[in-house]
What does this fold into?
Amino acid sequence: MESVNIKELNDRIRNESAFVDILSMEMGKVIVGQKRLIENMMIALLADGHILLEGVPGLAKTLAISTLAQAVNAKFSRIQFTPDLLPSDVTGTLIYSQKQEQFEVHKGPVFANFVLADEINRAPAKVQSALLEAMQERHVTLGDETYRLPEPFLVMATQNPIEQEGTYPLPEAQVDRFMLKVIVGYPSKEEEKQIIRMNNSGEFPRANKVVEPEDIIKARKVVREVYMDEKIERYIVDIVYATRTPADYGLSDLAGFISYGASPRASISLSMAAKAYAFIKRRGYVIPEDVRAVCPEVLRHRIGLTYEAEAENVVTENIIERIINAVIVP
It folds into this structure.
């Protein structure tokens, strides 16, 4: 690690990350506000992760990922999850061709660069697991053959936090597969006025193709090269361990609110997301502020709350904030 030339790496990453601003600006032409959502989509894209979005309908969740696909010149597909959906509706299946007298492969909508899993909690567990397996393994098996999914591959799943009737909540082990969980909020008054004007005029801007999929694949390799000091690694481990044993960090009162802490996958996601955030900020090294910036999105779906926490109206954001303030910054 001592042999890393920080200045040289910094200059290189400043050049390599130039496209991020162009991509953000292109998305900003179509998406009004939602800067945090766009930033998190960039982090997931560059860190090779997936996003779980939670927000009420009508907050441009579908528009956001389709716009990103347009700007990256990549294939986009949308899967509307419903209770009658089958795993083959997601991954694909084998269809018998009478003309050829053999089974032919029919690939499902998961074979795209950007996949929107709309209202993922509306489909049964077997359908959810089919998608989540593809997310983790990056390949799908149809019959005797295994097919690689295209690169880059990003899944953005949405959940409606209000209407829970007839839904199948994602098990904790499956939720853990998502690198980030983003809460999408309402736009400001000024942003909403802008949205009304845009829709009333009937002139909807479209994102231009400014990046190729090959550029994203190349950028992902560069993101892994972003320098992370051992002190930052220790800081990440301390934050994750504080979710498991809060008493060791002077947070004994939180022990009764946490049923289980974050897994080692959280540590990996936190380090990769921090590197991607540093890359977006055009820096060749990770600082503690990068880790703190991505902490809520990385940890909010990885901390289990007890009944006591629900009774006291304690949410995961409160716990994450306490942990970030308690753990010593290097």
Remarks:
- The two ends are 17 Å apart (CA to CA).
- The longest helix spans residues 264-280.
- The chain is about 45% helix and 15% strand.
